Amino acid sequence: MIELKLVDESSFQAVLDLKISEADERARFVAPNVRSLADAWLYRKNEDVFPMAIYWDKQVVGFLLLEIDKDEAEYFIWRIMIGQQYQGRGYGRKALEVLIKEAQMDRACSHITADYVVGNEKMKHLLTSLGFQETEFIEENNEIAMRLDLKKEE
């Protein structure tokens, strides 16, 4: 079972130890987790950026940096990565499914946005398969922005 938990003292080192493939690293598809944790720390006073460890049972298998923008009624997936040794097992999909369910239960959230670096076909396929739609090209970052409008259960 996949769980998303805030990074804390018990998961901090495991998150830092997660690595991506050399090919993905060269392509710069995702920033290193140390950068993501630094970003979360920089924005900590805003209380809207949440570094999440992705757990499979009791093992940290990935990392997700989430921004919750209440003014925009949005969950923004700033970054998501699954450690190289855990890829290909569906953990990324399951983590996003958990996040989507959480967002659907949050009455203040109307949509989820994410983006991916052009050329990252795995991320494009994953987001598309979950119902995300392309919204724009962000030239300065060479990224495609995507959006998932949430269906709320009454």
From TrEMBL:
Chain segments annotated as transmembrane: none
InterPro entries, sorted: Acyl_CoA_acyltransferase, GNAT_dom
Keywords: Transferase
Keyword Transferase: yes
A molecular function (GO) term: acyltransferase activity, transferring groups other than amino-acyl groups
SUPFAM superfamilies, A to Z: Acyl-CoA N-acyltransferases (Nat)
Gene3D superfamilies documented for this protein: 3.40.630.30
PROSITE patterns for this protein: GNAT
Domain N-acetyltransferase: 2-151
Protein name, per record: Putative acetyltransferase
